[in-house]
Amino acid sequence: MAAKILIVEDEPAVLEMISFVLDQVGFETLKAKDAREARKQVALALPDLIIMDWMLPGTSGLELTRELKGDPQSSGIPVIVLTARGEEDDKVRGLECGAEDYVIKPFSPRELIARIKVILRRITPHVFEETVEADGLHVDPASRRAHVNGVEVDLGPTEFRLLHFFLTHRNKVYSRSSLLDQVWGTNVFIEERTVDVHIRRLRKALEPHAADGMVQTVRGAGYRFSERSTGT
Ligand code: CA
Fold this sequence. Notes:
alpha/beta, Rossmann fold, Arc Repressor Mutant, subunit A, five-stranded parallel beta sheet, 12 strands, elongated, binds calcium ion
């Protein structure tokens, strides 16, 4: 599952360079050249991480980071600030405004990617996890594919995340609100019945593979994933 990374940078050459480098290693990239575009991208696409240039026209990267960190909808998105060499005070202020890390310009692509991976491993570990298996069902986060006994399961992105969460958290009952927090993330606000909709879709996708019984309803409590298909 590719992590979505928003790059906020007003210099077109730098923006393209970062975007190219991140594309190469398999990240999905979004671009914004100022705070206005960045706010729009954050609201529409909810990126997994933001690379924020310090010096932007109008609202600075610092102000924008503080603003995003103060909004419950975007406060959970990690931010890496790009700052110019020698601006030691800026680094400190960057971290004070809530950024998770900073990278000094000019930087090597390898360094930037390493920093991104460290933060994503900490905050969105599912992006890097290994294939998990239960009763012939294989879920591979790297290729974002699931198979039952070698046959691919046709899943939407949310159903895939749900299934992966279940396989890595077996035999425990999760309420709708805890599934929302853990699968959808803390930076989205959606109704609890949305969970039911996606559970239905997930079961429907698993049904042709006779694997739908692993996703179990626990009345009055929520849902549980169990290897033994003991029905619902
Ligand atoms: Ca700039």
